Amino acid sequence: MEALSDEEFDAILGEALDQLPAGVTEQLDNVALFVEDRPENGDRNLLGLYEGTPIGERGIAGFEMPDNIFIYRDNLIDFAEDRDHLREELVITIVHEIAHFYGLDDDRLHELGWG
């Protein structure tokens, strides 16, 4: 796929956020979404990452550090065939990472089609 400006990527990301399935963000609390070019370790295959404590493992409300979801812009652009595919992969990646917040592991997400 051709290079995208930050503004073009942000517009496609906004469209992807609008297309998230109903209810997926319903209980989402204390979670920040970050867009970075690539992971710190340079992995070119990682599209997203969830860092935090899944909701079922949390302690007393209000005493947890914020969870973070990272979206890796350059990896997603490299992976996508075109803008529509990028939008689809953004939706899948965001849902996948949010699902980790709800306690689902990678195996279960692949079974559900959100791998």
UniProtKB/TrEMBL annotation:
InterPro entries referenced in this protein's UniProt entry, alphabetically:
Zincin_1, Zincin_1_sf
Pfam families referenced in this protein's UniProt entry, alphabetically: Zincin_1
Checking SUPFAM superfamilies in the record gives: Metalloproteases ('zincins'), catalytic domain
Task: Kindly provide the name given to this protein in its UniProt entry.
Answer: Metallopeptidase family protein
**Which organism does this sequence originate in?**
Brevibacterium linens
